[in-house]
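Q: My collaborator sent me two sequences in one message, no labels, and asked for predicted structures for both. Can we handle them in order? The first one she listed is below.
A: Yes, handling them in the order given. First sequence, followed by its structure tokens:
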Amino acid sequence: MASDGTALTETGGKLDAAIVCAAHDDCNVNANMQIANTDVATGNPVPVVFAAAGSHANCWDADTIAANDVSPSVDLQYTSAVSLFGQSLAGITLTVQVSQDNTAWYDSTNSVYAGGGTDFYAAFTTGARYARLKTSDACTITATIAGKP
């Protein structure tokens, strides 16, 4: 039964249901459930899938930007392992900014130097819900923020 009291529906042999967890380690589910007349139990668990955050060039896609420009934000809910990568045509420093409400932004201690015409990559962990990038100088850049649980 769904949280609103309605019945869950079956589509193409699959039960339309989701288990949302606050963190990867918080996914203990206690339920009496059957799928295709098979009890769901310790030996036959319901798979819980955590989606990755981000898509290619979600910050900038060969965009020409000004100094101190900021990228669109990326929702990192349910992720903690975060990568940023791409290529800049000019030498710049990218600073990761974080926010819990997508309104108040703070510079983090995570940054990466993007040399002119070379690829850049950095990885970090965060508990923040949102992240975006801030540039030190004007440039043409492609940049991605991606995360996994």
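Q: And the one she listed second?
A: Here it is, processed independently of the first:
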Amino acid sequence: MKTGLAVLLAVLLLPLAARADVSRIVADPSSKEILYAGGSQGLTTTWKITRVPTGGPVELTSPEGKLLVNGGVLATVPARTRRYSGNPDTLEFSEAITIPQAVFAAAKNGGIITFERQFSDNRRSFATGRQTVRVKMQENAAPVAPPAAAPAATAPPPARQALVPESPAPGAVINEQSLFRWPPVIGAAAYQVQILGPDNKQAYLSPTPANQVFCRDFVRKFADPALAYRWRVAAHDPTGNIIAISDWRALTVAKR
């Protein structure tokens, strides 16, 4: 009897052990001071991501990072995706970015620049990490041009192309053999399929270099046949800008 109960508990706990959610993100260092002498300047950051429970392998995804001053987004940095093997307790994600001159101009001497990134673990949950940078102007430094004079801050975003998925059709019922598919977009370096549940919470996020993604992973691991979902796909250029995005389409999942 005890053996049977232990087996039952082990089976019931299997789905929980397989699920790992991003629970905490810390930037290292969490804050720093930059002695600014003019122009654009680099910033190196290591993000430490804690998951509950842990488990691998892991696919860590982050959309565009943001550089903010006084709550306003003045610049973005490219999206990132990285895979980890093994079973690390804490994932480390290091990157070097460039802070444009226009961002320093907005912060001014003594101002604060916030570098913000959102991460998801295996397309399930999202959490946000932040690093603050205090700006200290170097004596005798060249004057910083105002934000309006910086072309990078005022240039219009690239025009978005039309993107109409080929499948599934609006309102379709999908199964493991179904395919998310769309026409290739000129200039696209990657695509991202996004699925929202009835509560508008992220149900699935899949970056891919190809213009199709099999529905198998979503149907097997995340979908609930009792719920209604909606999906769309976005195309990104090599710098992470969205150059095409489809309208939302409704879908449901066939009962198994």
